[in-house]
Write a structure and sequence with these properties.
mainly alpha; 7 helices
């Protein structure tokens, strides 16, 4: 059992990297479709873009939740440090993802589809922008006291 304890940080690091990779690959498509929907020339093209997301788009953010939970469980000190340093970009990203989800669901049941199409695109853009800010902050370095 003690031999396993030596490898647990590496195992959890690989699990976290896998969760991040799955999130980036799966939700990157959704974010791209959302941003491209801002440039669609008519409602038919926007409808095609939104239909391409289908029923699976809800599950893509699940990997982000799994990554947050695994980071909290495996490396609580790193979790606290990272979330403290990246509080603003993470809040921006969450706001964008929530706004995007609301727009996606309300679009089908509204008479104002154009508004919800632009809201979906704006939420996608905000989430992608915030993820870029977070990545830039991590690459710049996080001060640890």
């Amino acid at each position: 059992m003690q031999a396993l304890e030596h490898f647990l940080p590496q195992v959890w690091f690989v699990v976290l990297a896998l969760f991040l990779l799955l999130y980036v690959m799966l939700d990157g498509f959704d974010l791209g479709v959302g941003i491209l929907s801002l440039t669609a020339s008519n409602e038919e093209r926007r409808g095609i873009l939104m239909t391409s997301l289908g029923n699976v788009w809800d599950a893509n953010e699940t990997w982000l939740v799994f990554m947050g939970g695994a980071l909290f469980g495996a490396f609580p000190l790193a979790y606290g440090t990272i979330l403290t340093a990246l509080y603003i970009p993470i809040c921006m990203m969450l706001f964008g993802l929530i706004f995007r989800a609301v727009a996606f669901e309300f679009r089908e049941h509204s008479n104002r589809k154009l508004f919800w199409n632009y809201a979906f695109g704006a939420g996608s853009f905000l989430a992608a922008l915030a993820q870029g800010f977070a990545l830039g902050a991590v690459l710049e370095g996080i001060a640890v006291d």
